[in-house]
Description:
With about 110 residues, the chain is an all-alpha fold. It has a single domain (about 1-105), classed as Glutathione S-transferase Yfyf (Class Pi), Chain A, domain 2 (Up-down Bundle). About 65% of the residues lie in helices and about 0% in strands. It is built from six helices and no strands. The chain has helices spanning about 1-10, 20-40, 50-65, 75-85, 85-95, 95-105. Helix 1 (about 1-10) packs antiparallel against helix 2 and helix 3 (about 50-65) packs across helix 4. The two termini are about 15 Å apart. The model has no long low-confidence stretch (mean pLDDT about 90).
Amino acid sequence: MNAVFVGRALAPEAERNARVTSWALETFHSRLGLVIQRLANRPFLVGDQFTAADISVSYALLLGLRTSNYTPASVERAYLARTTTRSAYARAMEICQATKAWAEGSPTL
């Protein structure tokens, strides 16, 4: 999702939406299918416990949502609700006020 955001929003105008940006978005959606499969019958990617994998995937999903490059469906929305309502997430957002402010001004779940 980082490459999609850069390719669509930060690259020079003449380079926006280059083939590599489309490829990055296609790759994101391909991997998203795997995430959705994993979440079909478990609350987190590895099972019942939150792991570093959930941090990584949540970041990508939230970046896509907050930059309007991706709209989560119900499975992903429920997953993001689980990951972002954790007390550790709230503490992290309090520590980084710039990220908190950016998130509050972005599209939400």
